[in-house]
Structures are given as C-alpha cells and as structure tokens.
Amino acid sequence: MPQTVINKLTHFMTSLKVQPYAEYPMSKIAGNQMDEATDLFAKMINAKNNEILIGGSTSINLYVLSNALKNFLKPGDEIIVTNQDHEANISPWRRLEESGAVIREWKINSNTAELEIETFKNLLSNKTRIVAITHCSNIVGSVNELKKISDLAHEKGAYVIGDGVSYAPHGFPNVKELDVDFYTFSLYKTYGPHLALLYGREEILKNLPNQNHSFLDGYYPETINPGGPNHEELSSLIGIYEYMMEFYEHHFHNSKDLKIFEKIKKINNLFAKHEEEIANPILDYISKRDDFNLIGKNKISNKNRAPTISFTSKNKSSKEISATLVKNNIATRNDNFYAWRCLKALGIDTEDGVIRISLTHYNRIQESEKLIKILDQI
Ligand SMILES: Cc1ncc(COP(=O)(O)O)c(C=O)c1O
Asked: Are 41 and 199 in contact (CB under 8 A)?
C-alpha cells in the first residue's frame, strides 16, 4: 500500500469525516475529494467521469450489472461465458438463464489452457447479447485479446463485459482502446483500499434501469448501485494517482504535456519490461522441471501474459509445496482462486488447487532467484 493512499485515508478519517456534499467547508472538501478521485480514475483509464462507478468489489459490481442488463434480454438471447474466468464473471451471467437466456460456454483448450478466438467465432450468433470475458486469467496468466473480441461481438450487436482484476495491477487499461462496453477491476489489487471500479459506456449506462432510490432515476451511473461508495476509501484513491505520478516523474522527463492516460501507458510499458525480466526466469525454471506442470505460456513477450504463475507437481500436493514456500518466507498459497471451472477443465483437484506465484512491479530479481533456489530444493 503506497504511503500516498494511507495519507489520504488518514486525512479523510481525521479531518473530513462528516456527511459530504454540504456547503460547510469540511463537508465541501470531503465531497470535492470524492469527486476528484472519480475524475482522476476516469482519466487514468481514458473514460468520462460519468462512465465510472466505484463499488464494493468486482463480484458486487458484476452482480448489480447483470441484474441491470437482464431487462434487455428476451427469452432465447444468448450469453457467452468462459471456463477460464474467475467465478465472479461467470455466475452472475449464468444466473440469467432464469430469465430465459441461453448460456454458451467458451471452453479453454485443455492442453494449453488458452481461450482460442476460433472457438469464440463458432459460438457467436445473431442471438448473442452478452460476452463476459476476463482480460487476464488469474490462473493461466494469459492476456486475452479484448479489442479483437469486442470487434467480433459488436458485429453481432453484443455487449462485452471485461474482468480486469488480474490485468489492472500490471497496468491500468485504456477502456476506449479496448472498445469494451463494461470493464471492472478491484482497487484493492491496484494498491488501494477494498473497492472496485466499474466502467460502462455512457450510451448504455443511460438506458439501464434505476437500481438506486427511485428519485435518482436518470442520475447515471449512480443508478446502477443501491447506495453510495465508502467515502474515505473513495477519497484515498487519489493516493493511487499520486503514487503513479510520482513513479512517472521519477522515470520520465520532459513530457509534462501528456494526458494522464498517456502517462499511464508509459508507466505500463515500464512495469511490463520489469515484470518480464523478473518473471521469465521463474517461468523458464518451472517449465523445464519434469515433475512440475506449468499452466499457460512459458515466457512473457510483448505483454501476452501477466506474471501470475500457476503450477502443480506430479509428486507432491500443491499444499505441501506451498507450505514449504511459506516456511521460506515466500508469500504464496495453494488454492483454486475461485477459477474452479478452469481447474476442473484442466483436470486439477479444486481443493488442493495450484501453487500460484504473483509478481508485480515492486518485486526484485533477487526475489525471483530466491524462489528458484527454494523450488530447487523441493
Ligand atoms: C480475475 C478475478 N476476477 C474477479 C475477482 C473478484 O474480485 P473481488 O474480490 O473484488 O470480488 C477476482 C478476485 O480475486 C479475480 O482474481
């Protein structure tokens, strides 16, 4: 957690914790900070500030969104879900079967664990209305081609819902470039408090039914969520922006005129370069071990994979290996990470799960080397 986030949270709690948006100074500042946080996040992901909503978690965001979108569906309309996603972007859509929707499953190739575009093309039809897909799998680590998927879905008039939870910690997305209709990620995984952002294209948000208090009809995007966000946590999101900009100032010079999302793009490239350097030795090591099964690509190149590395062992349980790593001060665990359909498709016991190593921009090559040394003793 960056100190900038902690400072914002502390300041709000100690100096601004009143009902926001009234005219007295403390309340006014509180409301302004909440608005500023929303504005800055909109700018970071290249959205308009009335296109983003801060909710409690990605699971909650997707649940309220599916509830809102079900009104657009006619019996027989089709929804494509994958078996690579975290359950948060599957169950809310599968549940719409109760409203007459037909669910089509985009299955991974069980040899590579990848979602293939050809399979998707065969599932798309003139009845497809919704495509729910993860931008990056929290098990396989693969980055799915959301732009290509959006183009294909839009040809059929379908909406694309991107789950960016495993993607965003490695670089905030440019939602307009991806051309998705909705996109959500958890802010507690992008160095902030336990909140989650939901982006929605304005033309669609405008027409969603009001799920908030009845007199708020028309006040999108507030209409999506019953109630408002956590005030102090929302305000502390400014600290994530400050952290990113401090990072930017440290590494780049003479480009002050760039837009915020353009600065984010440069930061992302730097994150990606570093993450590739620290993750590739681990991917290489695990993929060469005869007794380990690495899930997903054995090399990151050109941002095709996040440094989220899952594997199992032929001789030992994931629990045993994870326990050894934890004993050696490696913060990891064995689990299905709620992507249990993905594990089932790969023939992995969902109780024991995989061992997952997650790296990010602040990890160092020495940590990768230490991990490899410990794995070598197993
Ligand atoms: C890929 C992915 N999607 C969705 C979620 C759910 O996010 P939340 O905990 O904010 O509900 C997670 C959580 O780990 C995840 O990894």
From this structure: no
Question: Residues 313-357: pLDDT tens digits?
Answer: 999 999 999 999 999 999 999 999 999 999 999 999 999 999 999
pLDDT in tens, 220-238: 999 999 999 999 999 999 9
C-alpha pair distances (Å), 175 with each of 48, 52, 372: 10, 11, 36
**CATH second-level architecture of 3-242?**
3-Layer(aba) Sandwich (3.40)
Q: Say if residue 254's pLDDT is above 80.
A: no
Give the position, in ligand 1's atom list, of the atom nearest the Cα of 134.
Answer: 1
Pairing state between β 196-200 and 182-186: antiparallel
Q: Half-sphere exposure (CA, 13 Å, Cβ side) for 110?
A: 7
User: Which of ligand 1's atoms lies nearest the C-alpha of 196?
Assistant: 10
Q: How far is the CA of 337 from the centre of ligand 1 (A)?
A: 9
CATH class of the region 262-376 = alpha beta
- Ligand 1 neighbour 77 (Cβ under 6 A): no
Domain ranges, ordered by start, for the chain? 3-242, 262-376
Q: Name the percent of the chain lying above pLDDT 70.
A: 99
